Amino acid sequence: MPPGTRFLVAAGDSYAICGFDGTVEIGGVDNGFMSLADGTVIAAGGNIPLPNSACMIGLVSSGEGGMTGFAEIRVTC
To answer: Scanning 6, 28, 65, 71, which has its CA 20 to 30 A from the CA of 15?
Structure first.
């Protein structure tokens, strides 16, 4: 996953971050929220430190507008 690029993800997806130590592992997607595989929950519009990395993960949108089960994220390092 290239840092700074918006990515569409679903539960069970796992992506390495290009050029950085860290992996994005999606646990679940709900309307307005997404959880990582470790149980960390992110609300739509929020940014948090990505566990075990020097990167931040932001949830642009989640399960909205007919996109049930999908979330749009952006990772920055």
So the answer is: 65
Q: How many folded domains does the chain comprise?
A: 1
User: Is 43 domain-assigned?
Assistant: yes
Predicted model pTM: 0.87
How far is Cα of residue 8 from the mean position of the Cα atoms in its chain? Answer: 9
Which residue shows structure tokens 């860290």?
Answer: 22
Side chain identity, residue 47: N
- Tens-digit pLDDT profile for residues 53-75: 889 999 999 987 777 899 999 99
DSSP state of 52: T
Cα–Cα distance for residue pair 77/72, rounded to 1 Å: 17
Domain that holds residue 70: 6-76
